[in-house]
Amino acid sequence: MADEASDERRFTAIYDECRRRVWAYAVSRVGRQDADEVVAETFTIAWRRLADVPEPPLPWLLGVARNVLRAGHRAEARQAAFAAELGRWTAAANPGGDIAEDVTERLAVLRAMAGLPEGDQEVLVLIAWQGLSPRDAARVVGCSPAALRVRLHRARRRLARAAEGAHDASRGRRAVGAEAAAVPAVTKGTPAGTRVGIVGKEMS
What we know:
Layout: H1 2-30, H2 32-48, H3 58-72, H4 75-93, H5 101-114, H6 118-129, H7 134-141, H8 145-181, E1 195-196, E2 202-203
Antiparallel strand pairs: 1-2
Helix pairs in contact: 1-2, 1-3, 1-4, 2-3, 3-7, 4-5, 5-8, 6-8, 7-8
């Protein structure tokens, strides 16, 4: 009885400590719609295998969550869910109007992330967003720390190239838009002597 109570206390502590981060990982891999299901299955397994859960528990839990979502979701569905989630973050960061340069760069990074291979996305999420060390991230994906560092280096390099391209394209679109907006537009029926403003707006 005492052992059962001790197990319940330990499981509750693990759940309270890690649930939000496991959920965030699940969202980044399969989207919000299925994240709760992945979290529930992950902690069900954790309860059944509580004696196997190490300290700290988060890398182990993320490894379980990874196996759960890979078993239940095809790669194409995971990619689509990740792209959709990045789209939400992009929309939240870009409510409209003028965008500061640092926000523009963040948007470029988010858009670039959506175009990376799934393996690159996963490593970057674990390191940059989950805050895991390369050693702990390696435990999640099932490789050596040395191999993880190589994967991380390559993923960061590909992300930097993709983000630079996305940022340049975004600046190009804004420049073209600004040039177009500055061209006076004369429309039919404009009264003689009326000053023509920007893109067809009449100025008295």
